[in-house]
């Protein structure tokens, strides 16, 4: 059994009330949930720290919602708190600010975990397009080996093109798939040196010796972190013909 859990924290320094910010008249968290419900996951659960988000989700048919402590430090920790009380073996963590998340990408992460019994964690990346700023520290880069497992994640543009001959770089997408037992273990682990340096929590798993499978996708995230991003999301929706 598989479940998608969407952490949706109400407070945001850059976009207050972010989960309920409307895109095409629909709260962003509901747009995210609707996309997730088109995947093959057996359940979709929104976990939030605010009753207003809970009430908005309660109106959506087939969508589950749970409250969590506002003091929980991260989205992954919020997902882990929910995972303690569910029986599903595969847990997919989808951020609540991904209103156009590709259901097929969720399916791909589930498929990776089902196909490899020794795999505990999987994530995704997409190729940077020409003209995109690979030097932007907010666009996390990932390099991976021939086996598809991550070698490193960084805010710097890796790999370094020493000879200037041209190099493909991949942008990490912040969606994760976990085996439930590993998610609970991961959430209880102390951040390591690399995580504290780069401020990337996936490095906690790598520093502890855990492999992370990386799925390459053509999906280009339209994440919403600011009011400007919200305007871009509205424009994107109109280009899709749903505005």
Mean pLDDT across residues: 92
Indicate the percent of residues in helices. 25-40%
Give the uncertain stretches in residue-range form.
none
Distance between the termini: 35 Å
Helix vs. strand class: alpha/beta
> What sequence of helices (H) and strands (E) makes up the elements?
EEEHEHEHEHEEEEHHHEH
Shape: globular
User: Counting H and I runs of at least 4 residues, what is the number of helices?
Assistant: 8
Spatial extent as radius of gyration: 17 Å
Strand residue content: 15-25%
**What's the number of extended β-strand segments?**
11
The main β sheet shows up as: 9 strands, mixed
Q: Oligomerization state of this entry?
A: single chain
What is shown here, in short?
Helix content is 30%, strand content 23%.
Task: Explain what you see.
The structure is a single chain. By secondary structure, this protein is α/β, with parallel strands linked by helices. The chain contains eight helices and eleven strands. Strands 1, 4, 5, 6, 7, 8, 9, 10 and 11 form a nine-stranded mixed beta sheet that branches. A hairpin with a 2-residue loop joins strand 2 and strand 3. Helix 3 (75-83) packs across helix 5 (180-188). The radius of gyration is 17 Å and the shape is globular. The mean pLDDT is 92.
């Amino acid at each position: 059994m598989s479940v998608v859990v969407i952490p949706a924290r109400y407070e945001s320094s850059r976009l207050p009330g972010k989960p309920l910010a409307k895109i095409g008249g629909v709260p962003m968290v509901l747009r995210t949930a609707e996309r997730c419900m088109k995947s093959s996951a057996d359940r979709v659960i929104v976990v939030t720290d605010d009753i207003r988000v809970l009430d908005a989700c309660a109106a959506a048919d087939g969508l589950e919602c749970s409250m969590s402590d506002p003091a929980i430090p991260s989205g992954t920790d919020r997902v882990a708190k929910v995972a303690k009380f569910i029986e599903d073996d595969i847990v997919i963590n989808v951020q609540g600010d991904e209103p156009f998340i590709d259901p097929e990408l969720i399916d791909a992460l589930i498929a990776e975990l089902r196909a490899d019994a020794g795999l505990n964690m999987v994530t995704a990346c997409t190729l940077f397009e020409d003209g995109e700023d690979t030097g932007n520290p907010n666009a996390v880069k990932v390099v991976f080996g021939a086996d598809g497992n991550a070698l490193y994640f960084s805010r710097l543009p890796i790999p370094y093109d020493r000879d200037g001959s041209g190099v493909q770089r991949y942008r990490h997408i912040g969606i994760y798939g976990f085996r439930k037992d590993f998610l609970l273990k991961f959430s209880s682990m102390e951040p390591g040196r690399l995580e504290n340096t780069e401020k990337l929590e996936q490095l906690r798993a790598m520093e502890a010796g855990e492999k992370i499978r990386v799925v390459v996708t053509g999906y280009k995230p339209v994440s919403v972190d600011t009011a400007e991003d919200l305007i871009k999301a509205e424009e994107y929706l109109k280009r899709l013909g749903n505005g």
